[in-house]
What we know:
Layout: H1 2-14, H2 21-41, H3 45-56, H4 62-89, H5 98-137, H6 148-152, H7 157-171, H8 173-185, H9 187-192, H10 200-219
Helix pairs in contact: 1-2, 1-10, 3-4, 4-5, 5-8, 8-10
Amino acid sequence: RAAQYTCMLLSYLIERKAEKEKLVMKLKQLESSMSSGRKMFRLGNMVHALVAARRTTQLPDAVPRFCLTASNLTRALYFVCDAVLWLKSVGLQPDIDKPKWRNWATKCYYFSLLMNLARDWYEISWRLEQAVQEEKTKKNSCWDEHNQELNCLKCDGLHGFLLQVFQILKKHPPLLLDLVKNLCDLSGPLDTLGIYKTNPGVIGFCGVLSSLVGILTLASPHLKLKQ
Length: 227
C-alpha cells in the first residue's frame, strides 16, 4: 500500500517534466498493478471485518460499540464490492458495471471512515471531560507550573480548547495516530465522490502517511488504539 501511493505521489510530482514521460508511465503502470494485487490480497478481509464486528458488539460503552460495529460492517461491504471489482479486473466477470461497483465501494469505505472518526472524537471528548473533572478537584492555582496550561484553558476560548485537544493527543499517541490515519484515508473517498476534489499528489501523500502509520502500529502494537 505504501509503495502504491508512493508511485502515485512520484508520478504526480514529475509528470510535468517532458523528459520523464516514460518514467511517469512506468510508475502509473506499477501503481495500477499494485492496486490490482492488493485487491487479491484483500479477498479474505471480509471475514476478518465480520469477526471484528461481532467482537465490537460486546463492548460495554454504547458509543464505541455502535461506531466500531457500524464501521466493521460497512468495511465488510466494502470488501465485497472490492472483490467484485477484482473479478472484473482479472477478466473473470467482464460484464460487471465497474463504475457502479466502484461507487458503492467508495461509499462504504467513506462511511466506515466517518464511523472511525466519530469514535476518535468520542475518545477525545471523553478525555476532555475527564480533564475538566480533574481540574475541578484540584486546589492548585493557575500559576502551578505543572498544570498551568490546563488550568488556564477555560479563559482562552477556541485557542484554549485546541490547546487542550493537542495536550490530550500528545499524551495518548495511539489516539493521535488513529486520528491521523483516518483523516489521511478520507482524502481518497472525498475526491472520488466529488465531495472535496483534490489531486493525485495530495491523495498519494495522504496514502503514504496513512500507510506509514499503519506500519508503525503493526511494528509497535502498543501504539494501536485499543477497541
